[in-house]
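Researcher: Here's a chain I'd like modeled. Treat it as a single chain, no partners, no ligands.
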Amino acid sequence: MQSYSRWPAATSHCVRIWPATGRSSRGTIPAWKRCINAARLAALIDAHGWPGRSRVGQDGARAAWLILQHAIRNPPLMRRGLTLLRGGVSEGEVSPLEFAMLEDRIRTFEGRPQRYGTQFDWDEHGRWSPLPLEDPAGVDARRREIGLGPLDQDLRRRSAATARRRERGPRADRPPADWAARQRDMETWLRQVGWRD
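Model: Modeled as a single isolated chain. Structure tokens:
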């Protein structure tokens, strides 16, 4: 993903989000950088199609998916990417797990239940939990199809990892102090960005 003739025009809107998002949590990419990466990926897709494994190698394909998965301020790109990834799975160009994670993320942002149980957040009781599921009784079968273990096993692993991070200090993962306010803020953000009407 080198330079593209459309890069400056495609990314000029990203600079506007700098004041509100210039700082990031340790280990995360600031929103303005994710915005630029997403614009560059969109230009690449426009010019060449999805950068699958046979075109850019395993590492390049994984990098493209990570950019797409984190392009949360760009619903049209994520939705378009999901369509491209769906076709790429059948051609062996895309990991079924990557497709499932993107589909779950999009569905949860749109207010629909996820299919594979890959998206988690704090619940109202301060516990790390999967976001709502479509057909909870069938989730483990769907997870098996994409190479994941049972959801309860994944939940135990994630909860243990979160507890270990908490022990490391005050910046570690903690449930929100006011869960209801966080939910309202998230709903506002989802509407502003264009995930929901």
